[in-house]
Design goal:
This protein is an alpha+beta fold. 18% of the residues lie in helices and 36% in strands. The C terminus is likely disordered.
């Protein structure tokens, strides 16, 4: 009987010690899980640094600009989402304000450091360490609070691993163009095909000859062109365009909007079993890749566009014509 009573007492003491440890180290959810709580649109600057990259964003009026590593054209929505995440950032768990050795969390040498500054001049720094054993959460810590917390993968997705290329604008036709009224493709030096819109959604082939076209087919091509996105940023300012087949482009896509603004897009060699193609534009010096599944200029064929194929198209070099009765 005494042995049973002693066991109960020891078990009770053990429970009390465990509860004291959990509460003392803030492992239970009674603690405030707020990492940052700021006013909306109060952040003026964001910097993300990793072992291999650094990017800085500055708020200029209503829009954001990337200043480091370069003043790339960026996807505004992605940077706005990142700023909103910092303005309202909650932890999943708070492990404690005295975590001891930060090495176990990867916070002594963080994999990513996020610094941001408000318009009032207040600065904060968030350290990102190892992933937890579940691989669905990461250890983080504000440099001032010293409280180790965990956040989800989704929470950190907004920062794109600190890779500048992930924040760049990948759309091709967003700059300086309105509604497209004329477009075509040149193969080498020769114009291959040109179409003009004579009425909303209705097109006419004007080169290499005048012909009525299948408007649905033309609008489908134009839809692909209008939504074309960069798959990979290959080189910012290459010395040799020839290695990409862009010194003398294989194809040139030209477009013109209702205000007579014109743009040219140059296509070079294909890669990865013709699944990707090199491209550059007339207003940037960089080389990019797009997927040929999204758009392949070599597959724009006149026969697929016109309602009735004229005799003069697709015959090649005719040396003799014989008419039999």
């Amino acid at each position: 009987m005494k042995s049973f009573r002693s066991t109960i007492i020891l078990f009770t003491i053990l429970i009390i010690l465990i509860l004291g440890y959990l509460l003392g180290n803030n492992i239970w959810a009674s603690e405030d899980k707020t990492i940052y709580k700021l006013e909306a649109q109060s952040i003026a600057e964001i910097e993300i640094q990793t072992a291999s990259s650094k990017c800085t964003f500055i708020k200029n009026g209503e829009s954001w600009e990337m200043t480091i590593p370069k003043k790339y054209r960026i996807n505004q929505e992605l940077v706005v989402m990142m700023a909103r995440r910092l303005e309202n950032f909650d932890a999943i768990r708070v492990l404690g304000k005295k975590p001891g050795n930060l090495t176990q969390y990867g916070l002594d040498r963080p994999s990513m450091t996020i610094r941001f500054k408000s318009f009032e001049g207040n600065e904060s720094k968030l350290l990102v360490g190892y992933s937890t054993s579940s691989n669905y959460q990461y250890y983080v810590m504000d440099s001032e609070s010293k409280a180790v917390c965990t956040v989800t993968n989704n929470d950190l997705d907004a920062f794109k691993g600190g890779k500048p290329s992930e924040f760049r604008d990948r759309s091709i036709l967003t700059q300086g163009l309105g509604s497209i009224k004329c477009f075509g493709i040149k193969s080498g030096e020769d114009k291959k095909v040109e179409l003009v819109e004579y009425e909303a959604g209705k097109w006419l082939l004007v080169e290499p000859c005048k012909a009525e076209v299948k408007n649905n087919n033309v609008n489908e091509i134009l839809s692909k062109v209008a939504t074309l996105e960069i798959k990979e940023f290959v080189k910012d300012d290459p010395e040799d365009f020839n290695k990409y087949g862009l010194e003398n482009p294989i194809y040139t896509l030209f477009v013109e909007d209702e205000n007579e603004n014109k743009r040219n897009f140059y296509f070079g060699m294909t890669e990865d079993d013709k699944k990707e193609i090199y491209i550059r534009t007339d207003n940037e010096k960089g080389v990019f890749k797009i997927s040929t599944e999204d758009f392949d200029p070599g597959l724009v064929i006149i026969d697929d566009l016109i309602n009735i194929a004229p005799l003069s198209i697709g015959i090649g070099h005719v040396s003799k014509i014989t008419v039999n009765d």
